Amino acid sequence: IYQLLCLQIKKSVWEAFKIFRDRLPERDEYQLWVTRCQDGSIAIRDIGRTFSQSDEHLTHLNSFYHLISSFCVLLLSISIDYKTHNPTRKSCSPSLQERTSKENISNFNIQ
């Protein structure tokens, strides 16, 4: 049972890095988190909570949010002529551009 528990901890730490930090861990970093879980000083859910509130994760989310926002603004600025199926570019309203550039991922409460 202990080996199964160790395997699950290792998988959970690995996945937490991939999900919350969008990268694979360094060897020492990985071993630190695994050891902390194995000795009971933290639980798996604590890793998720810690990672989700880290600057690295929030920066990654912020970048992703701005990429999606820019893509949405681009999509909203394209009009399709339904008779010819040709796309045409239309000007985007200033209020939409201002809103998407001013919004920030920090407005979201990650728990």
Automatic annotation (TrEMBL):
GO function term, MF aspect, one: heparin binding
Start-end of Polar residues biased regions: 89-111
Any one Gene Ontology BP term: visual perception
InterPro entries according to UniProt: IMPG
UniProt-annotated stretches for the region Disordered: 87-111
Protein name: Interphotoreceptor matrix proteoglycan 2b
Native source species: Electrophorus electricus
